[in-house]
Here is the input.
Amino acid sequence: MQRIIIADDEIIIASQIGECLTANNYKVVGIASTGEDAVEMALDLKPDLMLMDIVMPGKLDGISAAAKINKALNIPVIFLTAYADEEMIQRAKPIGPYAYVLKPLQERQLLAAIEIALHKNIMQQQLKEAHDKLEQRVDERTRELRIKSENLEEMNTALKVLLKKREEDKNELEEQVIYNVKELVMPFLEKIKTSRLDNRQKTIVGILESNLNDIVSPFAKSLSTRYLNLTPAEMQIANMVKHGKTTKEIAKTLFLSTRTIESHRDSIRQKLGIKNKKANLRTHLMSYT
Here is the structure.
């Protein structure tokens, strides 16, 4: 049963309205005779609808009382008035009344206005609930998308780090392959080439050298010239320098003169881009590994 408050200072008219409403299955939960009483009663009882006379005694007329009620509660208001002048209508518009019913009241007109107002209010509440649910779903979906976006960014960052590490490992492996071939294999191959070989042995050595070059050539394309520009002899000397051998020790080990070793060291510095610079050759070489 819908609960209604009647606000009208004319007690007889208010009672007649109450009897009409009760006979049509509405429950009158209060009758206020001033604007102040109407506000207090509405805030306390929270009815489903207010019937508010515009002209009310006291500090608050019906329009001012409805404004206070409307600010605190979502209650439909129907104004009752014997006056329908333009000024009063303009004052009442901001309140958003659901209807104006002129006095003297006609029962059918009043009941129709009440039924329409209650139905309209229900529809508005349902619309608001649907709107609130939609906003909630949009907010939830927005949060989900933001979280997914953040997770995707983290995954992309991690993937970039992994790819960079993979590329670094690949380059390091390629450099190590070339370094080992030139340092550990090519010097001995050069010595074999300078020894007394028959034609068949020379052919085999040539094939071996060609195959070794084929092995390292795919790697060589992606590497810097700091390794590729070194000759096998320079690579061997650079390795010994890196391991802390002095010029004399290297010369003695390789059966070469110290002047030859110094010449190779000078060539290595030039190819590595540190000639005429205050840079320690051994320290520079160790930075490559």
In short: The chain has two domains: 3-105, 166-286.
